[in-house]
Design brief:
Length: 288
């Protein structure tokens, strides 16, 4: 029986890719303007509307996927006799994948013949998306569940994630930096560069002065770390700043030829924490 690959909305893959491949997914929840909205890749809540509200002072919060939701979806495919691969949002950033492991244990006890693998991607946004993309392309090529799981696990700690933000205001509002640090940083036009480490945690990398310099710094990091770019699909996600994402793409394409480049919004759940003006770059290197 052909495996099914399931993910969640923190992959930040374009909705067209999700729809075209009929990828089953679970949505994390964003609490926004008095509503609880389950993420669905921008269908219910348009990305532009979300980010404009955040710019205007809205402070959305988020909720993970619960055990029951995982249990019900996994059970549906087990009853069909389908082997399951779930590739989930980093456990260091959300409790969702922990709930998936609990649901897996419940189903293993209840239905021991079920074939269910839960993978903690230790990744975020299109870093997780690149792992899902890899898995689906392998599935299209007729690879077995075991081959897909092995390759994804081997690739996790090679997916590089580098982020920058345009404004420090959202980090200040979210309590991630002090008001003083935000004020000084804004006066000096400081732009932080952050990355996702081997634990799947978002941590500081460096600081540069100026927006264009921060975008060029992302390109420089790719140049230092990427392996075999011509064979790679790389990805850029953005917090409603497509022009900056395209500027970064242009820099990269002047230096490298890639197999493909995916560009999409940072989704609502991650965007609730990173804010508007985020630009993130994802690619494969020897290590993170």
């Amino acid at each position: 029986m052909k495996p099914v690959i399931i993910t969640d909305t923190c992959t930040d893959l374009p909705r067209e890719y999700i729809d075209r491949n009929a990828i089953p997914y679970l949505g994390l929840t964003v609490h926004f303007q008095g509503q609880e909205i389950e993420e669905d890749f921008g269908k219910t809540l348009k990305y532009q509307d979300f980010y404009q509200a955040v710019r205007d002072g809205e402070m959305p919060t988020t909720s993970q996927i619960n055990v029951t939701t995982y249990y019900n979806l996994f059970k549906e495919y087990i009853l069909q006799g389908r082997p399951i691969i779930y590739i989930g949002f980093s456990s260091a950033l959300s409790g969702s994948v922990g709930s998936a492991f609990v649901a897996k244990k419940m189903l293993n006890d209840e239905m021991p013949d079920g074939d269910l693998t839960v993978i903690d991607s230790k990744s975020a946004s299109l870093g997780q998306g690149l792992l899902v993309h890899l898995a689906y392309e392998m599935l299209k090529d007729g690879k077995s569940k075991e081959e897909i799981v092995t390759r994804v696990n081997e690739t996790i700690l090679r997916i590089n994630h580098f982020f920058t933000v345009d404004s420090l205001d959202h980090l200040k509002r979210g309590g991630r930096i002090s008001s003083t640090a935000a004020m000084v940083g804004s006066i000096l036009n400081i732009k932080p560069i952050l990355y996702v480490n081997d634990e799947g945690r978002l941590v500081p990398h460096s600081k540069v002065q100026g927006r264009k310099k921060s975008l060029r710094a992302l390109a420089d990091l790719l140049e230092e770390r990427i392996e075999n770019p011509e064979n790679q699909v790389i990805a850029i996600s953005h917090g409603d700043c497509l022009e900056d994402a395209l500027y970064l793409k242009d820099i990269l394409c002047k230096k490298f030829t890639f197999k493909d480049i995916i560009i999409n919004y940072v989704g609502h759940v991650i965007g609730a924490h990173s804010g508007p003006g985020t630009v993130a770059l994802f690619f494969m290197g020897k290590s993170r």
